[in-house]
């Protein structure tokens, strides 16, 4: 019986190899067990640090589940695909080592822009998401540390602005609003309808570039809410809490 089982596996391996030569379009898709493992290792949340959307929940009624998560390939399942690595064996390509759990939107995002979403970046995302899931599991409420790679990247790139934001967010009244405006120079009497912070290009010479990074790069830490009379932005809650805690 044991012998027979081994023969069958040898035959399956041979057949797979043969089909691969015969059909170069063949994809090394993840088996269900790998998809399941990838989802559970990050607590079913999207691994993009700027997203973290839940990907699993209940269907209406007493039974059934809804899944909006995707086991995405870090390097493509087939030749010619995003970040394809010809050096991997089919087994490596379809193993958890080559996968990352994402929501459907982020899964499309990483394949649409491979210049930005490199193999290294996705591996970093996965590692950070696993750290966050572990922390959530252990119910540690410690301040964010190594897992908040993108926040720390913002700090590294624009320490002066982040420091000023940090000083500004220490106040309960600001958390309701989370808004700031951008001016060329400090302007006496400038008023924005709600409580807000002000950052000036005079103090931060590359302010526009820094805001562009915070607005679009990876996470969307800030959202533009007005460009008239001045540029105004709102800080997203996750970034705001990080500024408060770090
Ligand atoms: Zn996502």
Structure description:
It is a single chain. The protein is of the alpha+beta class and 246 residues long. It has 2 domains: 19-142, no CATH class; 158-245, no CATH class. The protein is built from 10 helices and 8 strands. The strands form 3 sheets. The chain has a 4-stranded mixed beta sheet. It has a two-stranded antiparallel ribbon with strand order 1-2. A hairpin with a 4-residue loop joins strand 7 and strand 8. Helix 6 (149-157) packs across helix 7. The longest helix is centred in the N-terminal third of the chain and has 21 residues, at 2-22. It is elongated and about 85 Å long. Mean pLDDT is 83; it is low at 17-22 and 143-147. Residues 46, 48, 51, 53, 102-103, 105-106 line the site of zinc ion.
| Spatial order of the strands forming the largest sheet | 6-5-8-7
Order of helices and strands: HHEEEHEHHHHHEEHEEH
Beta fraction: 5-15%
User: Helix coverage percent of residues?
Assistant: 40-55%
Shape: elongated
Structural class: alpha+beta
Evaluate the radius of gyration.
23 Å
Q: Calculate the mean pLDDT score and round it.
A: 83
How far the N terminus sits from the C terminus, by CA atoms, comes to 61 Å
Number of helices: 10
Extended strand count:
8
Give the count of structural domains: 2
Give the low-confidence spans: 17-22, 143-147
Compact description:
The protein is of the alpha+beta class and 246 residues long. It contains ten helices and eight strands.
Question: What order do the helices and strands come in, and which of them pair?
Answer:
Layout: H1 2-22, H2 32-41, E1 56-58, E2 65-67, E3 69-73, H3 90-93, E4 99-103, H4 104-112, H5 119-137, H6 149-157, H7 159-168, H8 172-177, E5 179-183, E6 197-200, H9 207-216, E7 222-226, E8 231-235, H10 237-245
Parallel strand pairs: 5-6
Antiparallel strand pairs: 1-2, 3-4, 5-8, 7-8
Helix pairs in contact: 6-7
